[in-house]
Design brief:
Elements lengths: L1 H12 L11 H10 L4 H19 L18 H25 L8 H29 L6 H21 L10 H10 L14 H14 L7 H17 L4 H14 L11 H6 L9 H10 L6 H8 L2
Helix pairs in contact: 3-4, 4-5, 5-6, 5-7, 9-10
């Protein structure tokens, strides 16, 4: 494995960026990858998966999954450890995909199973977060600007759920999961006249899309680079149809069995979907209109910390 890492660093930082791989390097790497996980780790995985099955069978409130990776009580700790370990694993897997010209189906079966379980938990976490956001939106006197911002977060999470659906753990597919996904995908509307954005931001987003059109169907490296841009765009601009179309194409090109099989940095993306709710609606409203309807997100965040 050390030799492979040396070659990888040469690939990343070498002057010509050409990977110097021997004919059998890919095959040998995959064989060695199978030996990384010991039997006790595989047994721990089975226990974690069984706990999740039992949890789903108990029909919990979907909001239970909103912060499922942070639970420290009882068997929930197994999920926390699994999510942390798999997040790190995917960071390394993403690095070697391009280097060895790999795809999801090339990976050892155990790693494929871990990724599919991870995708399922991320999906349930997104469903839980959507319900949290909708619950906050329904509170009394929530400013329309905040509701619009929060609905944009819902659009982001809905896109992630749709993208991950083909690569969920089929052994965990039951009525609870199906209902959670169905309820989370109910349509939400974003009023574009009440956005926490400058008009110049929207113009920037549209121009950025124009420069990336050719890369969507390019190499895996191109797709990964586009995914970084998609991560930025999906955080703020999913109310734009052209942004939704672009992000959907990128997700489809990456999150398939013929590609990576997961969305890079997805835990951070979902965890960062934090809704806004105003404490003093009248003050917020006067600030909004004083700035001509272009209230800045950083100001909103600053007000929440007061």
């Amino acid at each position: 494995m050390t030799n492979y890492m040396k070659k990888f660093f040469n690939f990343c930082f070498g002057e010509n960026f050409e990977a110097k791989l021997e004919e059998n390097d890919k095959k040998e790497f995959l064989e060695e990858l199978k030996t990384i996980f010991k039997e006790e780790e595989k047994e721990e995985f089975k226990k974690t998966k069984q706990f999740i099955l039992d949890l789903l069978g108990s029909n919990p409130d979907i909001m239970t999954f909103a912060d499922i990776e942070k639970e420290k009580v009882g068997s929930y700790q197994n999920i926390t450890k699994f999510m942390e370990d798999t997040t790190r694993l995917l960071f390394y897997v993403e690095m070697v995909y391009s280097f060895f010209d790999l795809k999801f189906t090339d990976l050892p079966v155990f790693i494929q199973e871990k990724i599919k379980l991870y995708n399922t938990l991320i999906t349930l976490k997104a469903c839980g977060q959507i319900k949290v956001i909708k619950t906050l939106n329904e509170q009394q006197n929530v400013n329309k600007v905040y509701i619009n911002y929060n609905n944009n977060l819902i659009l982001k999470l809905q896109g992630i759920i749709n993208s991950l659906k083909p690569l969920l753990d089929k052994t965990l597919q039951n009525k609870y999961v199906e209902t959670a996904i169905k309820n989370s995908l109910n349509e939400v509307l974003v009023d574009q006249s009440n956005l926490v954005l400058y008009k110049s931001e929207l113009q920037f987003a549209k121009k950025l899309l124009e420069t990336l059109k050719l890369k969507v169907s390019g190499s895996l490296n191109d797709k990964i680079q586009c995914n970084y841009i998609a991560t930025f765009l999906r955080s703020q601009y999913l109310h734009l149809q052209e942004v939704r179309d672009f992000v959907t194409k990128i997700d489809a090109s990456i999150c398939s069995e013929n590609s990576m099989g997961f969305l890079p940095n997805i835990m951070s993306i979902v965890s960062a979907s934090v809704p806004l709710i105003n404490r003093t609606p009248s003050t917020d409203e006067s600030l909004y209109f004083a700035q001509g309807g272009t209230e800045i997100l950083t100001l909103l965040l600053g007000k929440l910390l007061i």
